[in-house]
Design brief:
Ferritin; single chain; globular; binds fe (ii) ion
Length: 281
């Protein structure tokens, strides 16, 4: 497979891979969507009963999807998975629309005193949209060529990581000066990495060389690994009630899992890039 071909070769294993990839994405992201529903609910005011109800409804929907995804196996009929993917896509679209509606309410000052930052609501809507698009891609069997996928996924996830650092920095108690400082440094680091990724994207297709992409992945991996470790430490400290913050322990774990997911994606890309390089040389 060379860099211009699809990430997944068109072999007999394709349908098995389709089932496996679909279940992997749904298991990961349905839990994430379920937790977003909880975070949204926690941020609403007591009188926002309608919004609370809507959030609870999405919680139950994604809880059910998560359970179903775990009850299916890699041996499940691909046609059944295809149907399941498109049902899940409907729900992902539903929660995306809900999140954008909430963002609109916050930005037009209709929820004074509610506790979710606009950037957080925008962020979780971007994650819902990412999930939606993954499901569409899987069902259409149209996977992006490897170099393009590498650049796009990194632009997306680097911004997600930069946001996380900002959320942590802003949800820590102002008296946690040291930790806020660390979070701020991560925020700057990831803003910079994101702009580097955008630059590489703008230099496409000339920038899509194996050495450049390889270095791009290696550089990003170092920062993501260190952010992931910081999140893990923060999560443990929050769970042990050792730091002052308004960060829900589940939110700390949630952002840790998302960083871990990004690392897995980087490693997967790196493995494909290396094997395509070896085969063509
Ligand atoms: Fe999330
Ligand atoms: Fe996130």
């Amino acid at each position: 497979m060379n860099g211009n071909e699809h990430l997944h070769a068109d072999t007999g294993a394709t349908s098995e891979m389709f089932v496996e990839r679909s279940l992997n994405e749904i298991r990961f992201w349905s839990r994430i969507m379920k937790e977003h529903s909880l975070f949204l609910r926690l941020g609403f005011r007591a009188e926002d009963t309608q919004l609370i109800q809507e959030a609870n409804q999405f919680y139950r929907i994604f809880e059910r999807i998560e359970q179903t995804a775990h009850s299916l196996s890699n041996q499940t009929d691909p046609e059944q998975i295809k149907k399941f993917n498109s049902e899940v896509k409907q729900s992902a679209t539903g929660i995306f629309v809900f999140k954008r509606k909430v963002l609109g309410l916050i930005l037009s000052c209709q929820l004074p005193g509610a506790n979710n930052f606009p950037l957080l609501v925008d962020h979780i809507s971007r994650e819902a949209n990412y999930f939606r698009k993954r499901l569409i891609e899987l069902n259409e069997g149209k996977l992006k060529p490897l170099p393009e996928a590498i650049i796009k996924e990194n632009v997306f996830f680097l911004r997600i990581m930069a946001d996380h650092a900002k959320f942590i920095g802003h949800l820590l108690d102002p008296s946690e000066r040291k930790l806020i400082d660390i979070a701020q440094n991560f925020s700057n680091d990831f803003d910079q990495l994101m702009y580097q990724a955008i630059d590489i994207e703008s230099m496409k297709p000339q920038s899509q060389t194996v050495p450049l992409l390889d270095q791009f992945l290696d550089q990003n991996r170092v920062s993501v690994a260190s952010l992931r470790d910081f999140k893990k430490t923060a999560r443990d400290l929050i769970e042990q009630c050792k730091i002052k913050s308004i960060i829900h322990p589940l939110l700390a774990d949630h952002v840790f899992r998302e960083a871990d997911r990004f690392l897995e994606i980087i490693d997967m890309f790196d493995a494909h890039l290396t094997s395509s390089n070896n085969q063509s040389s």
